[in-house]
Amino acid sequence: MRLFVACVASALVLTPAFASSDEAKEPKAEKICRANKQATGTRLAKKKICKTAEEWATEDQRNANDLRNVQRMTQ
Fold first, then answer.
1. What is the pLDDT of residue 40?
2. Which is deepest, 30, 36, 59, 64, by most CB within 10 Å?
3. Range list of H helices, the chain
4. 48 near 34, Cβ under 8 Å?
5. DSSP label at 32?
6. Dihedral of the CA atoms 29, 67, 69, 54 (nearest 10)?
7. Can you give the pLDDT at residue 27?
8. How far apart are CA 53 and CA 31, in angstroms?
9. Angle at alpha carbon of residue 66, lines to 75 and 40, rounded to 5°
10. Which residues contact 47 (CB under 8 A, 6 or more apart)?
């Protein structure tokens, strides 16, 4: 009986460990690189910035909001 209880207890303890190892194998988000065109004074100086698609979407949304706010202020 003790052996049965020990086996059940160890199975319950090890089950979350196996579940978390599947989550750890998720692929990393692919990086997307864009050229930064803010360098003034030269056409050659471009710096590549690499971020995930989610980070780019967040930045694009923030830039759109900033532009909208500036346009409202100038009206």
1. 67
2. 59
3. 2-24, 53-74
4. yes
5. E
6. -10
7. 72
8. 7
9. 100
10. 35, 36, 39
